[in-house]
Amino acid sequence: MMQQKQNNRREFLAGTMGAAVALGMGQTASAAEEKPKQQYYELRTYRIATEKNQQVVSDFLKNALLPALGRAGIHQVGVFKEIDSKDDHSLYVLIPFQSLDQLASLNDKLEADTAYHKAAADYFALPKEEAPYSRIESHLMKAFKGMPVLEVPKGKGPHLFELRTYESHNANLARLKVDMFNSGEIDIMREVLLSPVFYGEMLIGAGVPNLTYMLAGPNKEEHDEHWKGFINHPEWDKMKKMDKYKGTVSKITKWYLEPLPYSEIQ
């Protein structure tokens, strides 16, 4: 009888521990599922010399590419042009991917999309002498951990958009600058209403090592005021004086952009 009670107790404890472990694993898995995975961003720049050719490319993007991306499960695609640019008529296309597999399979999906080819037939039929763009420059980025998914600006658009690239003179300093954003710089920007759209660590592209990010504002005047709030923020003043973050950026390049009417980011 005593032996039977001991066996029953061991079975009870084993079952209880197993249930507890299973519950813990379930909670861990659930927590992992709730945390968004870091997206990947492709930033395409269609290099265009004239306003006429800009319209040709824009019509292709509006009528063919963006609808096809939507059918492929890719949404929140942004299309922008520079503000007050007289000599450069390039278009900037921001495409968010949920995974590298989604990126890798895109060309196959476009190839099989008959509606895409029908909508793009005239565009693809243009002879070399009438090519509407000189080249497409493509950059591939991975979202920061501090902001793993793209955020469309709140409020009525169209908004002003600022695209910024921070270059570093070696990969370790570039990593530290990403860490600086994740460790507080993003939070400060949110607090002063700089309204981030995305932050991306550059994986493939020109000017590496670098990071690239986009901010939104209601207009240039308010956006500049938000930047003043950031520069004068006491937490930013502390961060920029930390030894480990000194010298992380060697060059800053910025562009002011406006969305085209059909852009899914306004």
What does this structure look like?
By secondary structure, this protein is an alpha+beta fold. The protein is built from nine helices and eight strands. It has helices spanning 2-34, 51-71, 100-104, 106-111, 114-119, 121-124, 171-191, 220-231, 234-240; strands spanning 40-46, 78-82, 91-97, 136-143, 160-167, 196-204, 210-217, 251-259. It has an eight-stranded antiparallel beta barrel. It is globular, with a radius of gyration of 24 Å. The N and C termini lie far apart (76 Å). The model is unreliable at 1-29 (pLDDT under 50).
How far is the N terminus from the C terminus? 76 Å
> What is the total tally of β strands?
8
Mean pLDDT: 91
Helical region count? Answer: 9
Q: Runs with pLDDT <50, length 5+? A: 1-29
Please summarize the sheet with the most strands: 8 strands, antiparallel, barrel
Strand order of the largest sheet: 1-3-2-8-5-7-6-4
**Beta fraction:** 15-25%
User: Helix- and strand-based class?
Assistant: alpha+beta
Rg, alpha carbons: 24 Å
Give, in order, the helices and strands: HEHEEHHHHEEHEEHHE
Helical fraction: 40-55%
Shape: globular
Entry summary:
This protein is an alpha+beta fold.
Q: What is the topological layout?
A:
Blueprint: H1 2-34, E1 40-46, H2 51-71, E2 78-82, E3 91-97, H3 100-104, H4 106-111, H5 114-119, H6 121-124, E4 136-143, E5 160-167, H7 171-191, E6 196-204, E7 210-217, H8 220-231, H9 234-240, E8 251-259
Antiparallel strand pairs: 1-3, 1-4, 2-3, 2-8, 4-6, 5-7, 5-8, 6-7
